[in-house]
Amino acid sequence: MEGAYSAAMTSRGGTRLFISRSFRQSSRRGRKGWYQDSLKGQEKKLSVNRGLRISAMFEDRKEAGQMLADEIVKLHLPNPVVLALPRGGVPVAFPIATALRVPLDILIVSKVGAPHNPELAVAAIVDGNPYDIVLNHEMIEAYGIDEAELQILVDQKRPELERRKQVYRHDSPQIPVHDRTVILVDDGAATGTTMRVAIRALKRRSPRAIVVALPVASSEALRDLKQEANQVICLSRPARFFALGYHYHNFPQLTDEEVIGTLHKAAEQTGKTDSNRR
């Protein structure tokens, strides 16, 4: 685990947080941002697809995924696996997994809200075994949250994460990403916050590389993402980024049933089991 904290599974299946002394000291000096701390030992091969800069209007998420798939197959990425951020990332990721003939899985990120202000994230939990917890150092410092309080906030989010895991994955294990090229997909990024959390968590699982795939994103989100991922592929970077739905002709809210149906279809097309799954 990184120096900011460590997490350990308890005998009851919970996650214990231990905020290190170095984090407390660095917090007092002030942090520039949640994702600004350095990632030592990670070789970053940063590239942003600059071929399409004019704001594109996609018919729907499926079309956006097909367009991304056309670009990704040209890269000949070694040992790839596709992970989607549900719900919106799943229909975008499906054509990519189909084109590459590789497994499609999901990565669930749950925000941990600040006390009395749940819209402000003090941390995020990313599903896995065990869970990964990414801390928002600025908000923890601003609210004066200690280890015990943070533990309570994290534990309060665990049931919702477990519910979503059971709905989407049932009892199937998560596809391992160790030494694999992870293609991380969403339907767009206005701020890129959720995607950055996912990247941070995935890096702790020792993938070969992380490639972010987005139909559309703001310039600010791309700027931050390209400092986190090994590669960023984005079809459209509009000069003025409006709400994500404006970049699609059809952008309906997706249901859990639709997500589950897409995951089942992907399993049928690419194989119900993965050779790297244990």
TrEMBL record:
Domain of life: Bacteria
A Pfam family hit: Pribosyltran
Record SUPFAM superfamilies: PRTase-like
Annotated ranges, domain Phosphoribosyltransferase: 76-236
Keywords: Transferase
InterPro entries: PRTase-like, PRTase_dom
GO molecular function, one term: transferase activity
Protein name: Putative phosphoribosyl transferase
Source lineage: Bacteria, Pseudomonadati, Pseudomonadota, Alphaproteobacteria, Hyphomicrobiales
